[in-house]
Amino acid sequence: MILNGLYDNFLSWFSVDMGIDLGTCNTLVCVRGEGIVLNEPSVVAVKKNSTQVLRNGNELAVGWVAKEMLGKTPGSITAIRPLKDGVISDFEITEAMLSYFIRKVNGQHPLVRPRVVIAVPSGITAVERRAVLDSAEKAGARKVYLVEEPMAAGIGASLPIVEATASMIVDIGGGTTEVAIMSLADIAQCESVRVAGDDMDEAIINHMKKAYNLMIGEQTAERIKIEIGSAATDGEERTMEVRGRDMISGLPRKTVITSEEIREALQEPLSAIIETVTRTLERAEPELAADLVDNGIVLAGGGALLRGIDVVVSNATGLECRIAEDPLTCVARGTAIYLEHLEEWKGTMESDADDF
Ligand SMILES: Nc1ncnc2c1ncn2[C@@H]1O[C@H](COP(=O)(O)OP(=O)(O)OP(=O)(O)O)[C@@H](O)[C@H]1O
Predict the structure, then answer these.
(1) 303 known member of a binding site
(2) Is ATP-binding there in the keyword field (predicted)?
């Protein structure tokens, strides 16, 4: 056992060990000492009705190359996101994507295969966990460890999660929102809801259909959310010109929308997120709840960047709420730190393979 550990540490000198935030929207890879070395959309372009990944010249159509094809693909090509609601919905494609990213970071023909820590949503089933482990192994990892996303986010946000005090994280990603209260390097209370940034985009698409008879794509909806979206007013209202297809005439058209109507459209997904936060707090042990009065709540994930979301969470809970530094990279940075302290963390799930 000890020899195995020493051998593994020895191999680590020759491999680029990495932490991966395998997200519904983006995949980030973090390497110790180097920070985030890869940040690409979790998108793969394949031939229609097949799992054959396309090439764009010499490059496989994965990540940025594939994202550009999304929504603009000719009939014979499908650009797909192999993760849905934070979990793998297409194994073969996920494996192809992971393998592309791991190779990109580790080099085409590495001497030693890397150790990899992958952050997974806390709500996923044992079968889904196994699927992530298998995909990463087949994608070229020497050893794979899984860490729960809120734990990784807490580590990345420098919360004192190993201490005997409660830390609370709300990680709002693309497909899932993870809410967790942690203490003594373990998750004490956790809730995961499959409502997050993607649902906000969908709410905007539905609003544009209902209010303007205008069909817009997912990328336009995301742009609206980022440019003028908000959860609470910050005293400054914004407008934006939006282009799409008229649902009646079928022709391209543009219209001007306001931040107020988008805030209204976002109410439903935001309420679901807030309910999850309050439910988690209600279930917390009294001692841990007491700690949170002083420690407050930290928001992470891309959704934390929605204007005024900290205000809304703070108003709903009565607790102080702050946004983690660089919330989009929080989980990935946490996975890389986790890799350095594997022995300290409880219940790490790891793969069986240990060959290079
Ligand atoms: N400035 C912004 N304002 C609002 N939302 C934003 C902003 N920037 C990014 N987002 C949203 O954050 C989400 C992506 O966040 P993140 O990368 O943390 O998710 P993920 O890790 O891919 O998803 P998951 O954790 O569900 O697997 C997307 O829905 C994106 O539109």
Answers:
(1) yes
(2) yes
